[in-house]
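WARN no homologs supplied; continuing
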Amino acid sequence: MKIGTIDFGEQPLFLAPMEDVTDIGFRRMCKRFGAAMVYTEFVSADAVIRNIKSTLNKFVINNDERPVGIQIYGKEVEPMVEAAKIVEEMRPDVIDLNFGCPVKKVASKGAGSGMLRNPELLLEITREVVKAVRTPVTVKTRLGWDDNSLIITTLAEQLQDCGIQALTIHGRTRAQMYTGEADWRLIGEVKQNPRIHIPIIGNGDVTSIEVAKERFKTYGVDAVMIGRATFGAPWIFSERGYEGHPTALSIDDKIDVLEEMLRINVERIDEHRGILHTRRHLASSPIFKGIPDFKQTRIAMLRTTKMNELLEILEMCREKLRK
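OK structure emitted
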């Protein structure tokens, strides 16, 4: 599979762009464990244009995490074009347009998945961004606004005609948000369309590598993107068991990874914000499910504001998991 000149090989696994999740520390860990492609947190085109420092900080890219994409969202042509030009100066490998975010603060204003209610404008934005930059442009979207407007099969062809070089489809409508089950049948239908020649990347309810393998086999997608299942588990990409990746890490190895993520973020930003960036992963990590009465420990993780205290909690968890 290729996007532009980037060759990802067969059946690559991508890390989904997620706000307050895919910061540079987490991306680097996912890349280390086998993610073929990672993305920054998605950012508002308007915030990019206004040169908001906290937004621009999200664009910091290390060469060891490449290939990496920067994802932007917006609802107007000119701001999206201008933001794409600014983003291109950061030298991402891909510029991804978000037409899929379902959260109210984005979609209700007409951006993200809100664009699915105005496909003509969505296509105009895409067309103009493609014209404005040399970096490969890709799109991430959903099946449609709701079950009465499942437009993805037609929209995929139209987006391809706009010049995008890959399309990621989340198998839900905006109305579903993240509830119910992702429907991959329409994703497969898009992939099997003989007119489609760009890579199709499937997303939604990929909770393990076994599920990813099944999606490749059943629906023939070119890549699989993993989102929420990566929370606190960047090693999920290393559990493939093929292509030279190790099959598993020990509990000690995994806690070492979480501690390294914490240190990276604290050193990159500062203690307070570095902890804020990391503790979401710590509290969500599946490795702690084996600890009896973990609820109180989780609360302590979410409340602490000191790095040494958080490291002590992690070491306590390590000891409990060894028993």
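The chain has a mean pLDDT of 92.
OK
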